[in-house]
Backbone:
């Protein structure tokens, strides 16, 4: 069979498009897909293009991004800013951008997979917000999440409790047994914190040997029990792990979802210093 040079050029063009690492789809004015390359088909979790032809693009994207995608489709212009959305299949992050088309009745959209970049972005963000030694939120991470949850609690009218926790005699431990033993104690307290509070509560290492816990939707009457259980868990854990220096913790608290985070911390810290002045809470 003889093929003209025009046919060969066309065949080569479509083969190249199908081999692109980025997804590409063509839609009619109603948003229905009539062509998609191999990469796009794979992004959608489909085996063949026939499974996508006739489908609308919008339902393939997570519902929360629907209005953003709708505005993007209505612009139909290469000058329109690219948008980042998540696909329904696998929650994959993609970037949608326009390609020029000579046919006013079709839309050509380039779909770039951003999953790797988003994963790296999240990894770097976690590193920036996580305390390397304990795996808890660091000061920046705790503040970011706590302020966000406090705003949410105010809207719902929920009470919160902020605990300020300090390890007793921590300087003496470092001076006597070295920083390695001090680090073991910090990690032990961090582990007890993770096991003692709900996954919805926000726990952070505020600095040095001070930890903060923001307990959400927590009634004020629960504070005493919360503190007592945590003290006992710390004491038990120290004994079980055979740490060379047995110590306890001082705990202060503040309540009130209407207060700012800084105000809560100030009250809880003062309460914790008052607790530190009391006879040792350590269990012998």
Residues:
């Amino acid at each position: 069979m003889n093929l003209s040079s025009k046919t060969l050029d066309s065949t080569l063009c479509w083969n190249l498009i199908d081999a692109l690492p980025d997804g590409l789809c063509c839609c009619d004015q109603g948003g229905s897909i009539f062509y998609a390359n191999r990469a796009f088909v794979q992004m959608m979790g489909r085996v063949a293009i026939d499974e996508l032809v006739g489908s609308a693009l919008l339902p393939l994207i997570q519902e929360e991004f629907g209005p953003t995608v709708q505005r993007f489709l209505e612009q139909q212009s290469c000058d329109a800013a690219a948008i980042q959305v998540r696909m329904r299949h696998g929650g994959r992050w993609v970037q949608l951008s326009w390609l020029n088309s000579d046919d006013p009745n079709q839309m050509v959209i380039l779909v770039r997979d951003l999953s790797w970049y988003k994963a790296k972005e999240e990894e770097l963000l976690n590193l920036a917000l996580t305390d390397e030694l304990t795996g808890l939120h660091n000061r920046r991470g705790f503040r970011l999440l706590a302020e966000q949850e406090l705003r949410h609690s105010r809207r719902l009218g929920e009470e919160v409790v902020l605990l300020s926790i300090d390890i007793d005699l921590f300087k003496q431990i470092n001076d006597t047994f070295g920083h390695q033993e001090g680090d073991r104690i910090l990690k032990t307290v961090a582990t007890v914190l993770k096991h003692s509070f709900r996954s919805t509560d926000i726990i952070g290492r505020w600095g040095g040997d001070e930890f903060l816990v923001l307990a959400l939707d927590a009634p004020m009457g629960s504070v005493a029990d919360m503190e007592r259980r945590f003290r006992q868990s710390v004491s038990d854990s120290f004994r079980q792990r055979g740490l060379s220096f047995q110590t306890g913790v001082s705990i202060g608290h503040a309540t009130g979802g209407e207060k700012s985070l800084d105000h809560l911390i100030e009250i809880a810290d003062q309460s914790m210093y008052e607790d530190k002045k009391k006879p040792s809470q350590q269990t012998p």
Residues 1-8 have pLDDT under 50 and may be disordered. The chain is about 45% helix and 20% strand. The beta strands are 23-28, 33-36, 83-86, 93-99, 106-113, 160-167, 202-207, 210-216, 249-255. The radius of gyration is 28 Å.
